[in-house]
Design a protein that fits this description.
The protein is an alpha+beta fold. The protein is 34% helix and 18% strand.
Length: 88
Amino acid sequence: MSASDVGAEKGLTVYGTTWCPSVRRVRRFLDRRQIPYRWVDIDEDAEGRAFVEQVNNGMRSVPTIVFEDRSILVEPSIAELAAKLGVE
């Protein structure tokens, strides 16, 4: 996936790993509010991992969240994510 592909898919995309506490917290937040999202495990998906590294200056910073408007949040707090989504 290239930078030009960011937001090519409709909705929210969460890039992360299954073992990261911050990623688990974000996914739990989205699941509890029934907010649909596409999940990309960067440990399993080489294109996803490359994308995360590209947008984070070579770092595998997760969660990296891409919104439908093509904006990106990296390692947001739950408050930041809620504000961006317009939910509590």
